[in-house]
Amino acid sequence: MKKIVLVGTGMVGMSFAYASLNQNVCDELVLIDINKERAKGEAMDLNHGLAFSKSSMKIFAGEYEDCGDADIVVICAGVAQKNGETRLQLLNRNTAVFKSIIGPVCESGFKGIFLVATNPVDIMTRVTQKLSDFPKERVIGTGTTLDSARLRYLMGEYFGINPRSVHAYVMGEHGDTEFVPWSQALLSTKPVSDVLLDNPQRFSMEELNRIEESVRQSAYKIIEAKGATYYGIGMAIVQICRAILQDENSVLTVSCDLDGHYGHRGVYVGTPSIINRNGIKTLIELSLTGKEMNKLNESCRVLNEHFAGIEFD
Ligand code: NAD
What we know:
By secondary structure, the chain is of the alpha/beta class.
């Protein structure tokens, strides 16, 4: 039996829950929120869709004890940034939220995989590892999974090919310092740099830089237009859960711990990694150019600086 516990039944959490019901990703889905009434209402609402679904998933509002035999605990709980609040103040409040979650999850006897979506996701994933003391391969953040999907969609539109045949990633912090290692981007098996050389009239690096910037600005644009982003990330979480539960060995740009990779240690950052039943199987270390390395270093510097500012006691 495949069991997922979702903590945080807000917009992101429920988009994930709805997508998992439609994609039949597990056998049991438990919903937990500090607002118990909300979790109960969401469970009722989803259950009423079962008759229209191919899934016979068991869905209910539960307690932290239900994590004991879960395969994955997905965390989408968090507090929103207040007017005038700094990022670090928000981080400290979200760390307090995570203390109230990670402790009870661990006390339940949970031995599965933590999957974190709460922002700033790279830092909250590192906080989860620190609070749980779980093996690092079993604490994963959504990282730049969604950003990479946005990139592949936009590149697909630009080059006129199916995004599934675009092999390109967004790496680094899920945030302002994220970047595209263009030296590694392929259309099918052809490097994008060769495509540009062969088609100078049709395609240009300037346009690709615009696409990269547009990926970086996506969340801001969606938030400006509709207040929050949730469908895309909900589906990204489903994909990571499926990679774990089906033991897929899929490559996704999740946030995971660098352990000497690229010369960094201890920092969680978005990087292509192989995901399977045990969590992170291996990080795929890319041959980045000097400029790309500088960008990754900057992401790690920003993430380390913010993590160092968190008050844990
Ligand atoms: P939301 O406010 O709709 O939901 C947050 C939920 O967390 C609420 O239901 C709230 O009751 C619950 N909660 C708060 N404190 C809790 C606690 N101590 N224990 C249990 N539950 C608690 O917010 P949202 O739009 O769903 O966003 C959730 C998080 O996901 C945010 O941090 C957001 O920035 C992040 N996010 C991440 C990505 C990504 O790519 N990783 C994308 C979009 C949003």
